Amino acid sequence: MGIFDYAPAPESRAIVDIKPSYELFIGGEFVPATGGAFKSVNPATGEALAEIGEASAQDVDRAVAAARRAYEEVWSRMPGTERAKYLFRIARIIQERARELAVLESIDNGKPIRETRDVDVPLVAAHFFHYAGWADKLEFAGYGPNPRALGVAAQVIPWNFPLLMLAWKIAPALACGNTVVLKPAETTPLTALLFAEICRQADLPAGVVNIVTGAGETGAALVAHPGVDKVAFTGSTAVGRQIARTVAGSDKKLTLELGGKAANIVFDDAPIDQAVEGIIDSIFFNQGQVCCAGSRLLVQESIQDELLDALRRRMGTLRLGDPLDKNTDIGAINSAEQLARITELTAAGEAEGAERWSPPCELPVNGFWFAPTIFTNVSATHRIAREEIFGPVLSVLTFRTPDEAIAKANNTPYGLSAGVWTEKGSRILSMAKRLRAGVVWANTFNKFDPTSPFGGYKESGYGREGGLHGLEAYLDV
Amino acid sequence: MSEKTTAKKTAKKAPAAAPEAAASVTAPVGPEAASPASPVRLDVRKTYKLYIGGAFPRSESGRSYQVTAPDGTFLANAALASRKDARDAVGKARGAFSGWSGATAYLRGQILYRIAEMLEGRRAQFAAEVRSVEGLSEAKAAAEVDAAIDRWVWYAGWTDKIGQIRSAANPVAGPFWNVSSPEPTGVVALFAPERPALLGLVSVLAPAIAAGNTAVLVAPDSAALPAVTLAEVLATSDLPGGVVNILTGSPAELGKPLAEHMDVDALDLAGIADAGFATSLEQMAAENLKRVLRPSSAPADWTQAPGTARLTAFLETKTVWHPVGA
């Protein structure tokens, strides 16, 4: 070990108590699933963490019935002031149990503790705190004098930000007076089940929040259930499309937050060091398993060499390994399946003629890992420039003029996010206007806040989550 | 077609009696008018064509269909738009999107107001058309036209306000400037209801373009007549060509190509009365995640104040972040 190497600094796992098996959370009780069981795996080791109940169509039906009952009998009749207090209470308990949630999230998902501790969990608490305050102020939100809840919301969330996506879904739904049935991703159910315990600690009325675990079939049964008034989904565009077909012709209100292939555009006047940090955040945050990741770097031709040299140097300092180590920058890929997809797409990148580079990086033997990678000599037609990789893989393209940058950036069916790096204010504003994306980060990237609406253009989905705009998804307006 | 041919032939025979005939503008339309011996002038009929990219082409398919009054009286032959016409219209709408969405809200408002002015100037013509197409009383037809004009005025005033009421400066917990504001969705395919013929068209079209979208408007069956006259109003209101494209004919035929078109960003199914068909169009629209405004399950009352729902239906929200610092 050299003098500037880091000693291991693992966060203690003692704070979490992972049970051998978990049941469904329906009507305020943990009840056995009737659809069988599956295992949740620690992606950093490949070892099974717990047996998780798989919700059958009948279980989904029970959960929807419990949510309906809670809606009719309790939640829709409760004054907003009281709903607000429940949500504030939940926000507080999340803060109190923040470290436990962070550690459990890192174990189940594989993301570094630095992120779960400093980003995911604080944002989860903030999201509940923000929407808590909306519960008794809905008539001031601009949707008319008496905006009404929709009823029962079916919510299906992904594995990349398990608890944060839960918060994005449950907090506004409850604030607006809906009850929910939420299905966490099959590879990351543990924090959602711990959240169920938090609901019990908060004395949230039974059935207001129901959690059904399972895979695609469970989710399909949930969104297709006739007793559901609202469907909210975050995940792949392919599944989003399927859900849109399923709810077509019904009265269900639908919001979708889907895939992305964001351009991160760096102009020749950008401060190189800040831009490099921004690029690192844009594609290596959460191992690049982020729908709004800046997976296409568009660099102005005149600074390509300088920028890429600096980027490669910085990538050489990234520390990959144990997600629970406080010095870890890059954790594990969430599943063997996701690792296979990243591996397949990067192989296609090489086969199509792009040039691959990763810093020297030793990967752990067990678990699912992928070294931070960049591709240069990428053409707009390559699969790695068009398809969402959802991994720590950056495709580098170049441009000469702002017009060319816009044309390349918008040349995708996606439209979730984009980044711009330049010191010129008028150029930032003109680029921000012309980029067809729901979120534009200028001289920053991957920032999130409960007051800031998030969501896509085009095939990245529709509807917004966060802030005032996020209420619309859960109100009958 | 035979009707048109006859009219042409008769017109050719007319010149001898022309000076006197031209002087009479109140002549009744009918068999007597066609007699070369009559001093009464033969009216000049309008050819109802499509409106695509600011031009008035016939359907590329060469097809037309008869528009009749509720009592079956022949009114006109309208162009029966084809799938190819629909694709042409989408192309023109896409081409016009950058300019129209990039125009100032003030300019868009003035153009929409100009449309109201032009429509007002042709009130009598629209009233007659609506009356014959819908079989309405003179008073009811006039009321519908007035409501349609007023709807343009309502939306003209919204162009520079919708952005403000849908925008927000977001108080994020950090040193960032963070603003959300609405932007138009893109190319919207609008299926207008057949009744009320004019007010229905205007009620779906005006909000879509007021918000900065460009449109392909399908005017069903007999709504073709006021639709094409509306196109003439649009063509003389400084509205750039391609911002609105009007296809007359059958929603049953045009629904699929528009719902499946990958360069259409949104659908308004207001005029699709068949629930099963509306569902299948919504399913097709899922292929590229089009925004879909479903038809209302209860019969819509288009005379009611429209609110902002149709205006916001085809808006996206863009949020921009920038660090705050020295």
Q: What is the structure about, briefly put?
A:
Chain A is α/β, with parallel strands linked by helices and 477 residues long. In chain A, 39% of the residues lie in helices and 16% in strands. A seven-stranded mixed β-sheet of chain A has the order 13-14-15-12-11-16-17, sandwiched between helices.
Structure characterization notes:
- The complex is a heterodimer of chains A (477) and B (326).
- By secondary structure, chain A is α/β, with parallel strands linked by helices.
- Chain A has two domains: 21-258 and 457-474, Aldehyde Dehydrogenase, Chain A, domain 1 (3-Layer(aba) Sandwich), CATH 3.40.605; 263-442, Aldehyde Dehydrogenase, Chain A, domain 2 (3-Layer(aba) Sandwich).
- Chain A is built from 15 helices and 18 strands.
- In chain A, strands 13-14-15-12-11-16-17 form a seven-stranded mixed beta sheet, with helices on both faces. A six-stranded mixed beta sheet of chain A has the order 8-7-6-9-10-18, sandwiched between helices.
- In chain A, strand 11 (263-266), helix 9 and strand 12 (296-300) form a beta-alpha-beta unit.
- The mean pLDDT of chain A is 97.
- With 326 residues, chain B is α/β, with parallel strands linked by helices.
- Chain B is 43% helix and 17% strand.
- Chain B contains twelve helices and ten strands.
- In chain B, the strands form three sheets. Chain B has a five-stranded parallel beta sheet, sandwiched between helices. A three-stranded antiparallel beta sheet of chain B has the order 3-4-10.
- In chain B, helix 3 packs across helix 10 (251-260).
- The longest helix of chain B is centred in the first third of the chain and has 20 residues, at 83-102.
- The termini of chain B are far apart.
- The relative contact order of chain B is 0.15.
- Mean pLDDT of chain B is 90; it is low at 1-34.
- At the A-B interface, helix 8, strand 17, strand 18 and helix 15 of A face strand 4, helix 11 and strand 10 of B.
- Strand 17 (439-442) of chain A pairs parallel with strand 10 (315-323) of chain B, so a sheet runs across the interface.
- Chain A: Residues 31-476 form the Aldehyde dehydrogenase domain.
- Chain A: Belongs to the aldehyde dehydrogenase family.
- Chain A: InterPro entries: Ald_DH/histidinol_DH, Ald_DH_C, Ald_DH_CS_CYS, Ald_DH_CS_GLU, Ald_DH_N, Aldehyde_DH_dom.
